[in-house]
């Protein structure tokens, strides 16, 4: 949901207490005698059903497309999705709408942008001057800096839609600009202006800058195109309600966006409601029954939103649920600062079902999304999957969670599926040859002889993702086996003799234990009076054309023996 309006989180000291029954901390309350659920979305679905909503049940989320739509923004999509899926399981018709709050004004220039393919670019790589001249204008009135979409807002809304599609989440993306221009928000806007006194009274509890001249509408200046907050008159008597305005300066954090001073007239389709009224207006217009949102809004916009809904619009607010933010490598996500990763980036590193699992976990707990430690997340998912198929033992809670959630993560549960351990897949990623990857995986017992073709194909698809992970992080698996030709090298006689003896050791047994081979490398170097570091370096030079590499013994134990022997003897 949008936080772009300046009053979205302002004046928190003015927030009145909210009755417990209206608390957005849905999952942090005691359920009393309610049935205990293994999955948080079942708890929320119970509370939605308790409101006896009309069909279709509407679940909403939203974003202000001010910049790069990153993985953190998908939190709201996925939380709503799981509740929608539970309700669908129970036989309800559900719409999951996601508003692009694209009539919000551009208040500052982001440092980082991205194209539709997800490639991040610095502001200097696009026409920053054009963006600078449009500060204060709605996102949908600003040209797309990449020239591929109808506007700045449409560009980043498209990426949000693509992210949902990639995770197979059926959202209905709704443009706020379209809601205003089509007249869908006109009646509720007029109602707010008809009840200005009541609106001011409610808002004054949350903002200390509300005076008798405050009007809850922000016109778009017909002269300069910027949004202004200064309404000098309201006329609701004619066939087309209008407001008179003056284009004045706009506060934008630590800077001021200058107005042009124009005085004009705007219809209710040529502007927008301030955020604290716009959010409840969306609830009414779209018929929203449930909306998740971040903890900033739980303590900021939500108290005023439910107050406006009841005491200005005379409607009931939707069932709320606050979710904790998560971080990226321990730091907050920030489109403006460039600390982002897109869904498209993540799906180059792991399967969609693994990412869906990440969002299925308890939303009340803060988590870190770490690319460096992505193997741990994949291992968690693999464990969940193995629990579901009764392949490993688990405690009662883990078993219940796996049985409830796993079918929502995959297209179809299939017991014959094969998951290569992620770090093993990264080792296979050092081989360019697909046949060699499969050969080694079979040799290591990860692919059964009778595995169906689709399962083998799915298993080996993880190899490319793990290889991308190794290259992105530059970790211990970020090396490439030089198989086609022997790299240039020059060894002394003692080193060559030691390599020959190590080749004899590898050749002597059908199966070489990885740790035994690691130990033999040490002992061989000692027997030939070769510096241990230099001997490992010789191995890295021969196999990777590098001075360093992965743990050599375990790696060589996974490569076909004939090749290892021939390379140690410098034959091929």
From TrEMBL:
Q: Where is the composition biased (Acidic residues)?
A: 1-14
Q: Which InterPro entries match?
A: aa-tRNA-synth_I_codon-bd_sub2 (IPR020751), aa-tRNA-synth_I_CS (IPR001412), aa_tRNA-synth_I_cd-bd_sf (IPR008925), Lys-tRNA-ligase (IPR002904), Lys-tRNA-ligase_SC_fold (IPR042078), Rossmann-like_a/b/a_fold (IPR014729)
Q: Where in the cell is it found?
A: Cytoplasm
Q: Which reaction does it catalyse?
A: tRNA(Lys) + L-lysine + ATP = L-lysyl-tRNA(Lys) + AMP + diphosphate
Q: Where is this motif: 'KMSKS' region?
A: 332-336
Q: Please name one Pfam family that this protein belongs to.
A: tRNA-synt_1f
Superkingdom, natural source: Archaea
Q: Which GO terms describe its molecular function?
A: ATP binding; lysine-tRNA ligase activity; tRNA binding
Q: Can you tell me which family this protein belongs to?
A: Belongs to the class-I aminoacyl-tRNA synthetase family.
Task: Supply the name of the protein.
Answer: Lysine--tRNA ligase
State the organism of origin. Answer: Halopiger aswanensis
